[in-house]
Amino acid sequence: MTKNNKQTIVIKLGTSVLTAGSQTLNKPRLVELVRQCVTLRQAGHQVIVVSSGAVAAGRGVLQQQIGHSLAEKQMLAAIGQGQLIHLWQSLFSIYDITVAQMLLTRADLEHRERYLTARDMLTKLLEHHVVPIINENDAVATSEIKVGDNDNLSAYVAILANADKLVLLTDQHGLFTADPRANPDAQLIEQVTHINDELRALAGGSGTQLGTGGMATKLQAADIAQRAGVDVVIAKGSEYDILPQVLTQTAPSTTFLKFDAPVGGRKRWLLSGPKSTGKIICDNGAINAVCNQGASLLAKGIVSIEGQFKRGELVQVFCQQGTLQAQGLTSLSNQELGLVIGRHSSEFAQCLGFESAEEIIHRDNLVLLNQHSQQEVLN
Ligand SMILES: Nc1ncnc2c1ncn2[C@@H]1O[C@H](COP(=O)(O)OP(=O)(O)O)[C@@H](O)[C@H]1O
Ligand SMILES: N[C@@H](CCC(=O)OP(=O)(O)O)C(=O)O
């Protein structure tokens, strides 16, 4: 939330920015970015950095031909992360600013308690005027527990920190109508209120072997952050004084406006923490009740389910037309739910052999995803 125009700003620095298009870290670029972060702090803002670049730094240290397989990148990240944090530490120390390293994986955000621990830690660092430097813990992150890209990670961090703004610095001015690398005539899209399939279709992957996810993951990140009440800006990290310019809205960029009625409280965790493990497909009556009438999801309106999930895991709710409408924590596993699809809760005990709550996803455990200004309860 904005506190007297003093904002908490998460700045995500992509590999493309930190390498300036080369194969390894570009130190003058880091110097320049630290100077700008300090300018923001001197203006009273709190700064959190999500820094990519461990893999690139590792390449610079080893100076051997290393491929791009997962195992090779993990090895490079393990080598490079130390150098990366050392550089940030040295550069911020010129200004007498202390930094702290936080290496996260999805597992740190998935369980509510671990999520709260990470949140408290981040809050403490900011209280002590430390700049958190965050990256994914690539060296140990297996596919089951990793976020996979720092764009999504930075959106989760912005939610954790209750940030006002997320700035994604990359090697383009923002989201274009097509990948500008392949389409020189592509136009910059300056403002986005709501990300839809049409927009997602414009966002391609990374144009290089160094970046992860390209514009596609930046849109995923923006979508999550907007819903949680965070303004998001994508801008070009090589532009002079880009960070101050983003704040004064004078740089070419793409801005994604935060929602008028953002998801609040514990429900923010549902946007950022758990990974979805299954799908529930519902009839239009159920979708209408859940999306427009503030109802919980009942078994009666469920048409089918897909995937495997346990009780308490996150599942996604789709309409029969195939659009994602909501996500939330299920009270039954996929096997149990299979026994009661389409049934009234009065039949649950007989079908399941035990008593169970009538709601399959209780309203308190559910976030809507298909309305850009949904009236979610701010709890
Ligand atoms: N519609 C688009 N607009 C802008 N860039 C796009 C688009 N689609 C794909 N891209 C690509 O996304 C790249 C930026 O993402 P990425 O390489 O992952 O950078 P970073 O390391 O900054 O995360 C751009 O260099 C560009 O080639
Ligand atoms: N964690 C990796 C970067 C992953 C990533 O998302 O990269 P990028 O798309 O360049 O922001 C690293 O430190 O090299």
From TrEMBL:
Protein's UniProt keywords contain rRNA processing: no
**Which terms under GO biological process does the entry name?**
L-proline biosynthetic process
GO CC term (a single one) = cytosol
A GO term for molecular function: ATP binding
Q: Which UniProt keywords apply?
A: Amino-acid biosynthesis, ATP-binding, Cytoplasm, Kinase, Nucleotide-binding, Proline biosynthesis, Transferase
Q: What class of enzyme is it?
A: transferase
**Could you tell me which residue ranges the PUA domain spans?**
278-361
User: Which pathway does this polypeptide act in?
Assistant: Amino-acid biosynthesis; L-proline biosynthesis; L-glutamate 5-semialdehyde from L-glutamate: step 1/2
Positions contributing to ATP binding: K12, T170, D171, T212, G213, G214, M215, A216, T217, K218
- Reaction(s) the record says it catalyses: L-glutamate + ATP = L-glutamyl 5-phosphate + ADP
List positions binding substrate: S52, D138, N150
The family database entries (SUPFAM superfamilies) matched by this protein are listed as: Carbamate kinase-like, PUA domain-like
UniProt subcellular location? Cytoplasm
One Pfam match, given by its short name, reads PUA
Q: Record's InterPro entries?
A: AceGlu_kinase-like_sf, Asp/Glu/Uridylate_kinase, G5K_ProB, Glu/AcGlu_kinase, Glu_5kinase, Glu_5kinase/COase_Synthase, Glutamate_5-kinase_CS, PUA
Q: What is its EC number?
A: 2.7.2.11
| Functional description taken from the UniProt entry | Catalyzes the transfer of a phosphate group to glutamate to form L-glutamate 5-phosphate.
Family membership: Belongs to the glutamate 5-kinase family.
- Give the protein name, as stated in the record: Glutamate 5-kinase
**The gene coding this protein:** proB
